[in-house]
Amino acid sequence: MVCAGNRRKEQNVVRKGNGFNWGSAGHSTALFTGVLVNDILKIAKPKHGARYMCMEGADKLPNGYYGTSIRLSTAMDPAMGVMLAHKMNGELLAPDHGRPLRVVIPGQIGGRSVKWLTITKEEDGCSLKFDHPTIPALTKGGWMEKVKEQGGELIDGFWGTRSLVTAPSEEKSSLVVKMTDDHVKRIITEEELSQHNKDDDAWFAVNGHVYNATEYLKDHPGGSESIILASGADASDDFIAIHSDAAKA
User: Fold this and answer.
1) pLDDT digits over 133-142, tens only?
2) Measuring CA to CA, how many Å separate 139 from each of 32, 104, 159?
3) Would you say the pTM of this structure is higher than 0.70?
């Protein structure tokens, strides 16, 4: 998990805690134990057309209970590792870490991993209720982007300065992945597309082009459920958000 807003130096200004005033580079390592959200959703069978998994915790704020959301396609992809955890480092969660149950979302800002989880539900138009005030590291303007702009290498410890031992990498030309066939000229209406939303007949649209994924369901690395849930409609946002250029090709 990534969290750029966990600076104890600033927290101590509001309320003094234990330990020294570490800054934005503070980090720790933990091993969580739990069950993959993907396995739970397979049993729960989210309704067709749902796009987000919304989560709510027991900590009440002035304007409601703390809650966040992630794309349902992310939650249902076993490779993303989204889990409901009940242990941390081999022991039951401590109250401060979300006992009895918390969400763990690898690769996303820590504020999305709801503690003291009470409710999860799927929605077709859900968005964050209480997002973290800092910019996620990998998005435009995030701290990782700033480090790279200043010549820093995230993997060698020279954050914010160019490494003296590593030559600057050459800029790579952006790869434009072509996913369409110029020989296909058929026009498919939204009404026709909406009829192909079944386990044995799954079509979806990405950027105005329709794809028949029926034969690919059994081979999809993220499982067939994520495709079936998005079938019969425009899946552009989900597809682009979760797939690399290699996967698109």
Assistant:
1) 444 444 455 5
2) 26, 20, 17
3) no
